[in-house]
Amino acid sequence: MEPALSEALLNSILLPIIATDKQGRTLGLNDAARRLLPPDSAEPVGKRLDKLFPEWKALLTEMRGSHEAFRREVQLDSSRVAEASVTPVRDYGWAVTIYDISPFKDIEQAKNNLLGEVTHDLKSPLAAILSFADLVRASGPLNPKQEQFLGRITSAATRMTEQVHQLLDVVWIEAGMKLTLVEVNLLQLVKSTLEIIEPRAAARHIRFVLEAPATVPTITADNNRLGQVIANLVNNAVKYSPENTTITLKIWTEQNEIALSVHDQGLGIAAEHLDNLFQRFYRVKSHQTRQIEGTGLGLYIARSIVEQHDGRITVESEPGVGSTFTIYLPLSLQTA
Ligand SMILES: Nc1ncnc2c1ncn2[C@@H]1O[C@H](COP(=O)(O)OP(=O)(O)O)[C@@H](O)[C@H]1O
Ligand SMILES: [Mg+2]
């Protein structure tokens, strides 16, 4: 292409593009990129990228250390966010293409706010349904039909309350969750969580076995959130296991980590689903799971919380034999 045509073309497109050398110094930019800069700013050519955009230091570091294309979210100014797509330009350095994604961010934020408000508003009517059902029961005597219908009201409202809480957790995660860190004894936390779930398991003749050393080192973690992770894993183990089976929990320490595994003798999960299990709303669809209610949020929430603690979660499973979910948490949290 003729140089004059290339230049005219670059200046006619609406997408901002900046060419830099390998060190991130500006070699040239199109008109759309010039329009991103404050109107009274000095000539940008020759200046380093972080002189044009003060928030781009991390991008610059990555450019200097890299030879391959990459993308990164950057702040354009105090209110606008962009995705910078950085691609190598032979003999010169880099081409930085800037996509302003602020409108999408705003929509996402609005959606999350709405979800948060709506779900929050569902909490009190649900609490009212549950407590009035209790009051009706207490004001008895009821005939067997009334007893049965009331039982249905209670269990439906309980299920819905759990779903509302899960949705609120998702809102909390997407708003950049904040942990409340305290000293946590994982063994105690597992024991108290099992106590809560025990009746649900016993109703289906499912036993818990806990294998752990007599004492375990404490970790710095969010006690309630970690309790939620354990409850999600154990509830799944109960939910996806047949009657008269055993769920085995093990706690052990490795070099810098403490681990907890939850092993069941349940349905198991086919290999093709394993990669997707931790995604939002993902549920395995089969004739065996069709009857089992759920939101597909439990494992997404569990993974988000574990990763926020700098930990990880793994799954091993064999259909028809059982599943093992394991969480690993650092013994000393670095990012506290
Ligand atoms: N212990 C388990 N045994 C078999 N399948 C499981 C187990 N835990 C999770 N799953 C599968 O992973 C899916 C996602 O789990 P989760 O996110 O907790 O959602 P939910 O339990 O609400 O369906 C479940 O729908 C189920 O198909
Ligand atoms: Mg679940």
Write a compact overview of the structure shown.
With 336 residues, the protein is an alpha+beta fold. Helices cover 43% and strands 23% of the residues.
Q: How would you sum up this structure, described in words?
A:
- This protein has 336 residues and is of the alpha+beta class.
- The protein has 3 domains: 3-100, PAS domain (Beta-Lactamase, 2-Layer Sandwich); 104-174, Helix Hairpins (Orthogonal Bundle); 182-330, Histidine kinase-like ATPase, C-terminal domain (Heat Shock Protein 90).
- The protein contains 10 helices and 12 strands.
- The strands form 3 sheets. A 5-stranded antiparallel β-sheet has the order 2-1-5-4-3.
- A hairpin with a 3-residue loop joins strand 4 and strand 5 (93-100).
- Helix 5 (102-138) packs antiparallel against helix 6 (144-174), helix 7 runs parallel beside helix 8 (223-239) and helix 8 runs antiparallel to helix 10.
- The longest helix is centred in the middle third of the chain and has 37 residues, at 102-138.
- The protein is elongated, with a radius of gyration of 27 Å.
- The model has no long low-confidence stretch (mean pLDDT 93).
- The structure holds adenosine-5'-diphosphate (ADP) and magnesium ion.
